[in-house]
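2024-03-11 09:14:02 DEBUG pipeline.ingest accepted 1 chain
2024-03-11 09:14:02 DEBUG pipeline.ingest length=172
2024-03-11 09:14:03 DEBUG pipeline.predict start
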Amino acid sequence: MHKIFICFGYTLRVDIKEYFKDRAIQYTVFAHAPVFTVEEAKRERLHEKIRGVQCKNLFLKERKSRRFYLLVAPEHKKVDLKLFGESIGDSIKFANEQDLKEYLGVTPGAVSPFGLINDRDHKVQLIIDKEVWDAQFVSFHPNINTETLELSGIDFHKYVESLSNELKIIEV
């Protein structure tokens, strides 16, 4: 049984570490100062301590807020939102802070695939760049931005497969 927390006054949030424990998903925890962006993580030199692809996690929606997407891509790849939208057949934009709270149970700076445990209705489609999907190790914030969890690619696949969200692997 995993712990559930009241988050933001109206969203229930599941503890990702408990979720992993329940599913025998192995990880390593790295505590650090709060980081909100890939650039801040670089300044903190986290990449020197943590193995795995450094990622950007973009929470997006189609213009009329009917469909939501979480795009996970290596930080070094440039994402053209217009071209990305065309490739998935939607005109997209960034989701707002309220959407983050409602669907992922997180605040800006803590977006990661781990927030999908809070998407109880499976409204968010997970789109992962092939380089991330094929990586030997990945690392993401555990729904807070003062820690990073490192997982093997195998354990990351186990996590993604435990979700009921639609998954698409692409090349950004």
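2024-03-11 09:14:41 DEBUG pipeline.report Residues 153-162 form the longest helix (10 residues).
2024-03-11 09:14:41 DEBUG pipeline.predict end
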